[in-house]
Amino acid sequence: MKYQYWLSNIPGVGCKTIHRLLGQAGSAEEIYFLKKEQLEKLSGLSDRQVHAITDRKKNWNLEEKYAALGENGISFLSCEMAVEAVILTVAFWALLFLVEKRKVAGSLMEWNLYESDPIRHPYAVAVTLIFTVALMTCIFATLDNAVTLGHAGGSMDIGQWPRLILAVSGLVSGVLFDYEKGRYRNLIMYCVTLLSTVCILVIVSGGSFLLGLIVFYLSAGFFVVFFSTGFVRLAGYMRVPQFWAGMGRAVNNLCAILIGSFSVALIRSGDSTKIMIASIGLFVLISIAIYIYTVMGQTDVELPDQERKQEEEQEYFSAFADTYALTEREQEVLKMLLASDEEVQEIANRLYISRAMLYRYISSLNKKTDTNSRIGLIQFYYTWKPEKKADRDD
């Protein structure tokens, strides 16, 4: 770190030049010990910059300057660290703004990820999910260690680009997991785990390190989204939802710590047979765990009855709309009024119309249904009987 501090304090040498130097020399420490003749051979450096580097090394007491930082309680940030810190800070405040804008804060007890797929025995499902995540962590932590040891051993310089794969995999997994209200979430995660297990076997057999790197970052994004959404969904059924919402990360980190030393020792042993047996054994246990978790997490409500109820509600609403000749926009407004207890302005925002426009729609609905207020309209809707249409025709 102290050599990075020295490199960033050379006058006339900016971030772009530093990146070029690091790409050629490998590290700030290597640059520090280069002689003037060696610096002149590096591409992209002017004579003035070469002189600035050698002069700063000669006339600047690095040890004293760097020690002074610690004595004053100052931490050094490299260019990369500063940029990353700025990006994370901006992203955090942007997310906070969006959360406040959408007003999604509220008790998890009042919200479930898939309301149409209730869980009857949440604590039993929670235990099964903890066991599943713990087993999966053994696979993904082992793959992580294999990639890390390969990087440390010089097989390949990982650099920064794999983080893009991690970000993309997280976004893609969110979309795929939400497809058909999460029906295929466990199946997708099972396939990702299978791919990661195969990748471990390929790496220990002397296969492509690049393949392992790509699969690791792809699977990591899927795994994080899997255990996060799983426990967030469960939290809505628990007495203390705040405790369960972050349980996935806690289980993942704890298991990674517990099996870290064993995993590294196993990989360093180079015993392909033991690694294959351990990997396949873990995968078999994961297969059993995820099957039990899938079965226990299924709804105990008969889907045909549930679907029939939804169809009846839709038919009831359509009959009401046809009877009173509601336009498509009036139907949208009525559905929102029936589903929400929010203030008028908040409902208008959800419908992307002005407050005045919403009042006009409510007034039109009151006129067509012969009611006098928003509450009266809602009460009339729930007490209305389709037979009234025939009575009106008579």
The level of helicity is over 70%
Could you report the average pLDDT, rounded to the nearest whole number? Answer: 77
Termini separation comes to 89 Å
* Tally of DSSP helical segments: 20
As a whole number of angstroms, the C-alpha radius of gyration is 30 Å
Kindly estimate the percentage of residues that lie in beta strands according to DSSP: under 5%
Low-confidence stretches: 73-77, 103-116, 388-394
Count the beta strands.
0
- Which secondary-structure class do the elements indicate? mainly alpha
Q: What's the order of the H and E elements?
A: HHHHHHHHHHHHHHHHHHHH
Main sheet summary: none
**Overall 3D geometry?**
flat
How is the topology of this model organized?
Elements: H1 2-8, H2 15-25, H3 28-32, H4 36-41, H5 47-59, H6 62-71, H7 79-102, H8 122-152, H9 162-178, H10 185-204, H11 209-235, H12 241-245, H13 247-269, H14 272-296, H15 303-323, H16 328-339, H17 344-351, H18 355-369, H19 374-383, H20 387-393
Describe the protein's architecture and organization:
The protein has 394 residues and is mainly α. It has 20 helices and no strands. Helix 8 packs antiparallel against helix 11 (209-235) and helix 10 runs antiparallel to helix 14 (272-296). The termini are far apart. 23% of the residues are buried. Residues 73-77, 103-116 and 388-394 have low confidence and may be disordered.
